[in-house]
TrEMBL record:
InterPro entries registered for this protein in UniProt: AAA+_ATPase (IPR003593), ATPase_AAA_core (IPR003959), P-loop_NTPase (IPR027417), WHD (IPR054472)
SMART domains with a match to the protein in the record: AAA
Pfam families per UniProt: AAA, WHD
Superkingdom, natural source: Bacteria
Domain AAA+ ATPase: 415-547
Organism: Pseudomonas citronellolis
GO molecular function: ATP binding; ATP hydrolysis activity
Protein name per the record: ATPase family associated with various cellular activities (AAA)
């Protein structure tokens, strides 16, 4: 029960509470009990909503004596005369408080079981007894939260505030999620006895929260969220938290949403302690007994509908843009609604930028690459360029082919655009990824394999899940550098670590096939890749070591237009057998040497820079390669 905050109810509740204290004073010999009872009856009849004490007695099924015990403990805190009467009755003026012994002697319908630990007053921590003085002589203390409730103040217990977060109401919702809400409510309404938890699993965490909020709203209760990671491990602490929450759920009229994020061992025993409306949200099914529902991010057609609904009249002029947004990003209803509400939706560029959104989830495991390179920056054979352009075509039109033309109807397998770039270091693999990202106007992230691969069993899979989930939402291109370190040949199973490593590779294969975007893998050693993985690649592009003609083209294009150049012999420069990445390094180092000397970049600076690059690569330059440079 969430007591109404209207001033008329508050005033009426306080008048009734004062009258209750007057009745207790009469029972202790100060006043007429019949007169006090009549006054109470009149006040109660005039109230449209139940008084707080009546609601509390109903919620916790208190007997008349237990109700009076609670009022007596509250009265000594709020009514000075009642406190004095308690002191007089005990014969100790310095002890103006209620005791169980006094209540047994003075109050009607007294029973010894009222303060037994399993009974409501003690079980729900409504009253505490100073047991150092004995059960009958010890001071009765009403819990402060309960005292304020009786006075008309209803708020979340401060002991729970650090753990619980109020869940906002649901807004825009997909049809699939609305169906989950309806089905969950139907099952709850058919339940008899203890309600089974509603278990929400899937990849749309915000959608799970919205589904839970809508269920609670339709059932007329408020919803609070608890992270499973904050559930204490110790059994006695779990018990205390469960009691405190269930008391709050009764006082506030609330339900609880527990958000599980992994191996939350305290979750199952804690859930077993709870009654009432409980929802659990998790990425994968959590293994609890309950009513389970999948809550995933909406598919492409549903995203289109959500964009149209969120934008209203503005959607009519943005049909091509909305198709692109639905195909490129994988956003839930709340993200779509938020973007539509906050931005000038007439600007497609701003819509795309907002959809890329908050990339912090990627920052721990991936490095953003600013893609500026263009097609003319690539020095490759025509066959290689044609393959790269086909990759762009597949990425650009995957919405049309997969969804409009029905190729996605068979499931998610094979919908990903997994591509392998292989060749020696510096041959243009990363540059080609930048060109694709720039041409497609997509964010590009290089995956930090040292951060992804973990020595702890199961951690690599979790890291990969985070990478793919975040990348799908951002619509990003993933670039796995030196991919053979992660995607190498599966090992022969010799121990549990080998077995789990193979599970991780299998998980990776599944995610690569289902990934709704472009994933580019680079390696210097194609033969090192797992054969099963190689068969799942849609494109394979070889980046060979550049020949002399290609090296000359690279030299001619490496210097920006503003760079001052002396007379350069590009044919002689092309004799130096280095890949494109090294050519850029040499050109950059020579530019710094020329700037220091106050002149233009010439063959002398390039020769010195070439030797510096060779020393870095621990590979000597032959005389034939640089003969005639200076």
């Amino acid at each position: 029960m969430n007591a109404p905050a209207a001033p008329d109810w508050t005033a009426a509740n306080q008048r009734l509470l004062v009258a209750e204290f007057a009745r207790l004073r009469a029972l202790l010999g100060d006043g007429e009990a019949d007169e006090a009872q009549a006054r109470l009856a009149d006040l109660r009849a005039a109230m449209e909503e139940p008084a707080a004490i009546d609601s509390l007695a109903r919620l916790f099924e208190l007997s008349a004596f237990e109700r009076d015990l609670l009022l007596l403990a509250a009265g000594v805190e709020m009514d000075a005369r009642l406190a004095q009467l308690c002191a007089q009755a005990s014969g100790q003026p310095a002890r103006p408080w209620a005791t169980f012994g006094l209540a047994l002697a003075a109050l009607p319908a007294a029973h010894w079981s009222a303060l037994a630990p399993p009974e409501p007053l003690r079980r729900w921590r409504l009253l505490e007894v100073d047991e150092n003085a004995g059960l009958t002589a010890g001071r009765l203390r009403i819990d402060e939260r309960v005292l304020h409730f009786l006075g008309g103040l209803n708020y979340l217990d401060p002991r729970l505030q650090p753990l619980l977060q109020a869940v906002p109401g649901a807004g825009l919702m997909s049809h699939a999620h609305a169906a989950v809400v309806a089905a969950a409510i139907e099952r709850l309404q058919r339940s008899h006895g203890r309600l089974l938890p509603i278990l929400l699993h899937g990849d749309d965490a915000l959608g799970q929260q919205d589904v839970a909020a809508d269920i609670a709203q339709r059932l007329g209760v408020t919803l609070y969220q608890l992270r499973a990671a904050d559930i204490p491990a110790a059994a006695h602490e779990q018990a205390a938290l469960a009691i405190l929450w269930q008391r709050e759920a009764a006082l506030l009229g609330s339900a609880l949403l527990i958000v599980a994020q992994g191996d939350d061992k305290p979750l199952a025993p804690f859930v077993a302690r709870l009654d009432g409306l409980l929802l659990v949200a998790s990425r994968a099914p959590c293994g609890l007994d309950g009513e389970a529902f999948a809550v995933d991010r909406p598919d492409v057609p549903e995203q289109r509908r959500l964009w149209r609904e969120a934008l209203g009249e503005r959607a009519a002029t943005l049909a091509p843009t909305l198709d692109a947004l639905a195909g490129q990003y994988r956003l839930g209803a709340r993200r779509i609604a938020g973007i539509a509400a906050q931005l000038d939706a007439s600007d497609p560029a701003r819509l795309h930028a907002a959809c890329r959104g908050d990339a912090r989830a990627m920052s721990e495991l991936a490095q953003p690459i600013e893609a500026r390179a263009q097609w003319h920056d690539l020095v490759l054979s025509e066959a290689q360029l044609q393959t790269l352009r086909q990759i762009a075509v597949h990425t650009r039109h995957r919405l049309t082919v997969h969804h409009d033309w029905g190729f996605a109807d068979g499931g998610s397998r094979g919908l990903g655009i997994a591509t392998l770039f292989w060749g020696d270091s510096g041959t243009g693999k990363t540059l080609a990824a930048e060109v694709l990202a720039n041409a497609l106007d997509l964010a590009l992230y290089r995956i930090d394999l040292s951060a992804v691969v973990s020595k702890y069993i199961g951690e690599t899979e979790k890291n990969l899940r985070r990478v793919f989930d975040s990348a799908e939402e951002l619509g990003a291109i993933l670039l796995f550098d030196e991919a053979d370190a992660l995607f190498g040949k599966r090992s022969e199973v010799k121990d549990s670590h080998d077995r789990y490593a193979n599970i991780e590779v299998s998980y990776l294969l599944q995610r690569m096939e289902a990934y709704r975007g472009l994933a580019i893998l680079t390696t210097n050693h194609k033969a090192a890749l797992d054969g099963a993985f190689a068969r799942r690649l849609r494109f394979v592009v070889h980046f060979p070591f550049p020949d002399a003609a290609q090296r000359e083209a690279l030299w001619r294009g490496v210097f920006p237009a503003a760079t001052p150049l002396a007379a350069l012999d590009y044919a002689k420069l092309a004799r130096l057998a280095v890949p494109g990445g090294s050519i850029r390094n040499i050109a950059l180092a020579a530019a710094f040497l020329a700037a220091e000397a106050g002149g233009a970049v010439g063959m002398a600076q390039l020769l010195r820079a070439a030797h510096l690059e060779a020393a870095k690569r621990d590979k000597a330059i032959s005389d034939a390669e640089t003969r005639g440079w200076v």
